[in-house]
Amino acid sequence: MRTIYLIGDSTVEDNKEPFRGWGWALPRYVQEDVQIKNHALSGRSSKSFWDEGLFRPVAEGMQPGDLLMIQFGHNDEKDDAERHTDPDTTFPETLSRYLDAAEENGVQPVLMTPVARRFFSEPHSLMYTHGEYPRAIRELAARRKMPLIDLKLRSRALYLALGEEKTAELFVRLKPGENPEFPEGHDDKTHFNAYGADKIARLVAEEMAKMEGLREWVRAMDG
């Protein structure tokens, strides 16, 4: 069975309700002979994912002909030494470790820019977050001649088309008393609910369907 391996942070991981990453929803968009192994984990950057040994089981499990989809950037911008990388130096250097490991195993790596956050300054004006990390990913993909899914661009376009209120429906929002872990309620601008995870997974599949070498992994897109 063909396998797509996912590595990244909480916006990708399966997680638990009410939180869902887009990797949780991706299986419904792939071909029947494709399985998803989602190794993404909350709070990780490209650096901490590597340093903690979280990539080791991925490297050991990958087989020639598999896919490795890589989405980091949300936590690389954090200030702590365990996660922080510099977009011009250590970030592309760390990402290259994953690319090298994939190629050495006959696996096709796919670079992805981080999915956009929900920060509107006006109903149809979205703030640009993630700094220079998306640029660094685009440049690395071009330099290494790797497939790139610009999820930052696609998700941002989706949010702007939906507007502030409709976009909020994609994210975890809890009323006071609705969830015991958030007794005062919660209005998340980064993490998706199941509905939002599905919308983003569809964007990923749509982008894959446009690319030679990736389109055969996904189902035909309707509508």
Describe the 3D structure:
- There is one protein chain.
- The model has no long low-confidence stretch (mean pLDDT 94).
- The chain is of the alpha/beta class.
- The protein has helices at residues 22-25, 46-51, 56-61, 90-104, 133-144, 151-162, 164-168, 194-209; strands spanning 2-8, 34-38, 67-71, 108-112, 120-122, 125-126, 148-149, 171-174, 186-192.
- The protein is 34% helix and 18% strand.
- The protein has a five-stranded parallel sheet with strand order 2-1-3-4-7. A two-stranded antiparallel ribbon has the order 5-6.
- It contains eight helices and nine strands.
Main-sheet strand order equals 2-1-3-4-7
Element pattern in H and E: EHEHHEHEEEHEHHEEH
What distance lies between the first and last C-alpha atoms, to the nearest angstrom?
28 Å
Strand content: 15-25%
What would you call the structural class?
A: alpha/beta
Q: What is the number of E strands?
A: 9
Mean pLDDT: 94
Radius of gyration: 17 Å
Relative helix content: 25-40%
Annotation field: number of helices: 8
**Overall 3D geometry?**
globular
For the biggest sheet, the summary is: 5 strands, parallel
pLDDT under 50 segments (min length 5)? Answer: none
Provide a short characterization of the protein structure:
By secondary structure, the chain is α/β, with parallel strands linked by helices. Helices cover 34% and strands 18% of the residues.
Keywords:
223 residues; alpha/beta; 34% helix; 8 helices; 18% strand; five-stranded parallel β-sheet
SSE layout and pairing:
Layout: E1 2-8, H1 22-25, E2 34-38, H2 46-51, H3 56-61, E3 67-71, H4 90-104, E4 108-112, E5 120-122, E6 125-126, H5 133-144, E7 148-149, H6 151-162, H7 164-168, E8 171-174, E9 186-192, H8 194-209
Parallel strand pairs: 1-2, 1-3, 3-4, 4-7
Antiparallel strand pairs: 5-6, 8-9
